[in-house]
Amino acid sequence: MSTRYGAPQRYPSQASQYRPSPAPRPVSTQYGAPQQQQQYYSQPAYGAPPGPPPGADPQLWQWFSAVDTDRSGAISVTELQAALVNGNWTRFDLDTVKMLMSIFDTDRSGTIGFNEFAGLWKYIQDWQNVFRHFDRDRSGSIEGSELSSALRSFGYNLSPTLLQLLEQKYASGPSDRYGPPPGITFDRFVRACVAVKTLTEAFQRVDTDRDGWVQMNYEQFMQIVLSAP
């Protein structure tokens, strides 16, 4: 099996709408695009950092400054959740935000600095590319065959039973009359793919002879399950 399981892929042959934009825009309907206030694009607020670090993308620094609402120089879980939105303008699921923090908080400070934020921003853009590629009906969510196609592209051939369980677990709640049809929104799609990747790799570490069968005790089983996103 490929070690790329669950990693976002680029689709250069697709139309430009599937590619991440070269730089963030002040107002965007992109999945995962931070919300922001126009004041951050005029004069910096009192107490704001004087400017980006040497070599930093100025526009990315503007995004970071907009998300860092308390001007602490780092982004907390609360600030990150307030900034990230799905294509239907719902905020990111808190569990997904915590997962992103755990991936990019490399110094385990409990917050994300600018360099860590730069990595997170690229990660989200790459996943945007994947999501748009597989959201073939442009519904703003992933369902059924779209989920199956996405996972197969990562090397995961899940059974119909497992696909149904996955879709039920990560689907958003019932929509109201103004909302999109039920399905897996962008934030939950990322978490579902990362969960499949994490659990598969955990299983492979135990399945040393690669025959698809393992023997494990209760402690090992619980460690694998509780470590999943």
From TrEMBL:
Q: Which domain of life is it from?
A: Eukaryota
Q: Does the keyword Cytoplasm apply?
A: yes
Major localization class: cytoplasm
- What keywords are annotated for this sequence in UniProt? Calcium, Cytoplasm, Metal-binding, Repeat
The protein's name is EF-hand
- Does the keyword Heme belong to this entry? no
Q: Which InterPro entries match?
A: EF-hand-dom_pair, EF_Hand_1_Ca_BS, EF_hand_dom, Peflin/Sorcin_CaBP
Q: Which Gene3D superfamilies match?
A: EF-hand (1.10.238.10)
